[in-house]
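ok trying this again, last paste got cut off
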Amino acid sequence: MRGMQNFLKILVTGVLLVMMGGVNAQSIEEVRSLYNEGGTASQSEDLPLAIEKFTACAEMCETLYEQEEDEEAGTLLEQLKGTIPTLIYKLCMEQLKAKQTSEGLATAYKAKQVAQDYGNQDILDKTSKLIPQVHYKVAAGFYKQNQMDEALSELDKALAVDANYTDAYYLKCAIYKTQENDDLLLESTRKGVAAAKAGNDFQTEDKMVKLTGGYFLKKGNDQKAASQYDAAMVSLNRAIEIEAENVTAYYLLTSIYNSQNNWDQAIEMAQKGLSFETEANKARFYFELGKAKFGKGDTAGACEAYSKAAQNTDYAANANYEMEHVVKCQ
């Protein structure tokens, strides 16, 4: 019985070896056939069929090369690693040109993945640049239609591929400004400015700074006018965080601190504002600085500040009054 079992094992093994040899012999012929079919489809601009045939050919080449070290299969595989991602990218571009955006995006992601798998850096670079641009274009369309959630979703997809895509950050800032979502506006601006600095994108950085800084400045000014001083200070400090030389924000903060008898903070804000203000507009800071100095008990400092404010005709009358009747400068 044992002898019969051994005989059957030997017989089965022999049959399998013969079968495997036949499969391998047949496979290299099939590889050539698939390669030629892919080439014919490519020449006739049937890109989906060419991609299908070349992909099947590549899979078979990889198996043959790994199992049998078939040199022909290995050579063809290396050629296909360049050809397949390029054809998928070409198909993607044709779909996008035909305004088949969803299909084009799906194909672009496929091209990116295949390029990454095959080590095709050229196509990987192209798709990594293309995909965020397409998502941004889709987001801009949603933004114009006031579909903000859909726009934000597309922008997040763009940033998932390119975390430094500054255009996406700018549009997110515009959306959050429209929604008056202060926290997310500030967060997006921080990230966007950092990305812009890293990429030397000074134009987009400046746009974000002006958009967000201007938003918080206006909001702080409105809150101050409504006597909402605590809220105004939060907004104005955010304006300064984004735009360090926002002189009007410094001036408004100086005024608020003076109204609260917080002389030290008023003096600090006035001095910072003066460091950025143009010479022609410094009088407003000197006038507020005079108030703060006098409130703190620094008569000499108050007189000096009011004296400088009085050099501007718009502030001369009030500054002279303070010096003569309030501080009683000598």
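PB: full thing came through this time. The chain has 15 helices and no strands.
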